[in-house]
Amino acid sequence: MLERIPLAAILAGGKGRRMGGRDKARMEFLGVPLIERVLAAVEPLAERVAVVGGQQYLAHRGIPTVPDRFPGAAALGGIATALAWARENLGPGVWVLCLACDMPLIRRGVLSLLWSRRDEAQAVVPRVEAGYEPLCALYREDALEVFLERVLAGDLSILRAFPRLRTVEVGEGEVRRVDPDLRTFLNLNRPGDVERALALAGSQPKGQPAFHPEKEPPNR
């Protein structure tokens, strides 16, 4: 991929209630904090990375934290915050890749696939049998107004925003060509999800190197 994604926003404002209130961004998976794993996956593909919500998790890596402008508005508010920050700092029409902070097995091929499908769209969203994956999706800055309307209306469903946008759905068949077991979309919401992710991580193809964020190529 020659052209990089202008901004990757790692959404880290969740409360982790289904994980017993644990700070999921700092929760370790195979010895690496979840948010560090997401950063390592996306950093080589993005011009800039920012954390939306939560604490200064990645300040030691030079990654800025953008305070959540819509507390209580869940992931919808996090996406709106990322788009507003992009508009103010990067200008109109810029693309933002939004990723949840609790996805330890992101495949870069999925992110590149989304980026390749952005023409004439305002949102590029994977859609698999389980449904949309809005927390691993691309949003253009001018989608902000629709998200703001949803926030102000108190309707925090991201999915109900898609009919109001020029939305490109990337189907399961396309995704499976670069991520056969759809591991990219596995969020660690409950303890059982950790066991499933560990099983998937242990099923690396023969000869595939283990994941070591410190060995990933730097973005800057």
List keywords for this structure.
globular, disordered C terminus, Spore Coat Polysaccharide Biosynthesis Protein SpsA, Chain A, two-stranded antiparallel ribbon, 8-stranded mixed beta sheet, 220 residues, 6 helices, alpha/beta
Note the topology.
Layout: E1 5-11, E2 28-29, E3 32-33, H1 34-42, E4 46-52, E5 65-66, H2 74-90, E6 95-100, H3 108-116, E7 123-128, E8 131-132, E9 136-140, H4 144-153, E10 167-171, H5 172-178, H6 191-201
Parallel strand pairs: 1-4, 1-6, 4-5, 7-10
Antiparallel strand pairs: 2-3, 6-9, 7-8, 7-9
Helix pairs in contact: 2-4
Detailed description of the structure:
It contains six helices and ten strands, in the order E-E-E-H-E-E-H-E-H-E-E-E-H-E-H-H. Strand 7 (123-128) and strand 8 form a beta hairpin. The chain has helices at residues 34-42, 74-90, 108-116, 144-153, 172-178, 191-201; strands at residues 5-11, 28-29, 32-33, 46-52, 65-66, 95-100, 123-128, 131-132, 136-140, 167-171. The chain has a single domain (5-215), classed as Spore Coat Polysaccharide Biosynthesis Protein SpsA, Chain A, CATH 3.90.550.10. Strands 1, 4, 5, 6, 7, 8, 9 and 10 form an eight-stranded mixed sheet that branches. The protein is of the alpha/beta class and 220 residues long. Helix 2 runs antiparallel to helix 4.
Report the sheet-strand fraction: 15-25%
Helix content: 25-40%
Secondary structure class reads alpha/beta
Broad CATH class: Alpha Beta
Distance between the termini: 17 Å
Global shape = globular
What is the number of domains? Answer: 1
What's the main sheet like? Answer: 8 strands, mixed
Helices and strands, in order, run as EEEHEEHEHEEEHEHH
CATH superfamily: Spore Coat Polysaccharide Biosynthesis Protein SpsA, Chain A
Uncertain segments: 204-220
- The name of the CATH architecture is Alpha-Beta Complex
Structural Rg: 16 Å
Number of helices: 6
CATH topology description:
Spore Coat Polysaccharide Biosynthesis Protein SpsA, Chain A
Could you report the average pLDDT, rounded to the nearest whole number?
Answer: 88
What's the number of extended β-strand segments? 10
